[in-house]
Design brief:
Number of strands: 7
Length: 199
């Protein structure tokens, strides 16, 4: 696969996708409908391999990425939520390969929230709980890096996943908002692209 892609940077309807107003089905539903319209338009008007569409986002964009992976799992190849939690997990459609990425000392979206999203994808994709290398080993590596005020990122691959829908989990020690490790690490884009190219 060549290093070619069409990147679409979307801005949410209103100030964000979160909210509970009832107008037109609520803010979340308006944003989901907006994504679907943009996806349809891009697939209709550009030379797109519809089997290789993936979504990624950070923070609230990662939360929304997890929603899209649940709602559009039959149209997406992969999802890469960076520093996100899992707003929805019921009545999901299809399966997507998943690359959750999370900072070890994220105090905006705590690590356990990212782990919950990761565990959802592990179950959804039929993976075992075995990771290579172990989660404990990379967690210790990233903790040591963070304690030494250094930047590092490490990933594990879960074993036994259904064909075509692997799950890779990455942790990092890079300072983000307020030096909390919340946010998109410098290596994030490359991690995602390398993952997608293997699919």
């Amino acid at each position: 696969m060549k290093d070619d892609a069409i990147l679409v940077y979307m801005k949410s309807v209103d100030a964000g996708w979160e909210g509970t107003d009832g107008e037109n089905g609520g803010i979340r539903e308006r944003n989901v409908a907006f994504f679907e319209k943009v996806l349809d338009l891009v697939e209709d008007e550009y030379c797109v391999d519809e089997r290789r569409v993936f979504v990624a986002g950070t923070s609230s964009g990662a939360h929304f990425t997890n929603i899209l992976a649940c709602r559009f799992g039959d149209r997406l190849l992969a999802a890469a939520p960076v520093a996100g939690y899992l707003p929805e997990q019921d009545n999901c459609v299809g399966q997507v390969a998943a690359l959750p990425i999370h900072g070890i000392d994220d105090d905006k979206v705590v690590l356990s929230s990212g782990e919950e999203a990761r565990d959802f994808y592990i179950e959804q994709n039929g993976c075992s709980s075995t990771a290579v290398p172990t989660v404990e080993s990379i967690h210790a590596q990233i903790r040591a890096s963070r304690d030494a005020a250094q930047t590092d990122v490490a990933c594990v691959d879960y074993q036994g996943c259904d064909q075509g829908v692997p799950v890779r989990w990455c942790e990092h020690s890079q300072g983000g908002y307020d030096n909390s490790t919340h946010g998109w690490p410098t290596a994030g884009g490359q991690l995602i692209w390398d993952f997608v190219k293997t699919l």
